[in-house]
Amino acid sequence: CEDCGKSLIGECKLHGPLIRAKDRVIPSRARLTLPHYLTLRVLELRAGNQQILGVFAKKVIQKRTQFGPYVGQLSTKLTCYDESRLVLQVLKDGGKYFLDTPNEDCGNWMMFVRLARNQEEQTLVAYQHCGEVYFTTVKPIEPHTELKVWYAADYAKFMEASAVFIKEESDVSPLPPVAKEPVDPWICSSCGNTFATFALLESHQCIHKDRV
């Protein structure tokens, strides 16, 4: 104690405790990477003061806007699992790795994007391109709308998950519907698979190259 000159264990009984000054809280790496036209909102507060966050648009975001790549640690085992987020994997040097984000300093803002529960609320599609995962908008996103993501058709096969298809807008007259299958204009010359966008075809062809 600087007032009585004594070395004490704990606070001074005569002059009382010290006035504690706390450091300023520094935002995590993931929060600092958030684009200026997006914002985080607390959707739920769980036990232990755990916040469930969602990413929302602050202005109109155009269709075909690409975000990424997703930042995470390459791992053979997923150490952090959240049922409200997508599990993501990539091909690297012939191996299949998880993109793990055990804390907010190991990833970017994309780790906060929640998965879409159905086709209507899906605004983003996740796909792999040259060993990286990107999110792209599949329709215009209005202000105050939450960004929600699901796997692209080809990436869903890679992840062994079911695919959620977004109906593509077109200036031409729609073709007659085919039983439960979307009309996909982009065809892979190697295996004949079809894709809704050129970006998905590129991602698929990248996987072909990796296998070769």
From TrEMBL:
Domain SET: 38-152
Cellular component GO terms held in the UniProt record: nucleus
Domain C2H2-type, first and last residues per copy: 186-212
Coiled-coil portions: none
Biological process, per Gene Ontology: regulation of gene expression
Gene3D superfamilies: SET domain
Sorted UniProt keywords: Metal-binding, Transcription, Transcription regulation, Zinc, Zinc-finger
GO MF annotations, alphabetized: zinc ion binding
Source domain of life: Eukaryota
Name of the featured protein: PRD15 protein
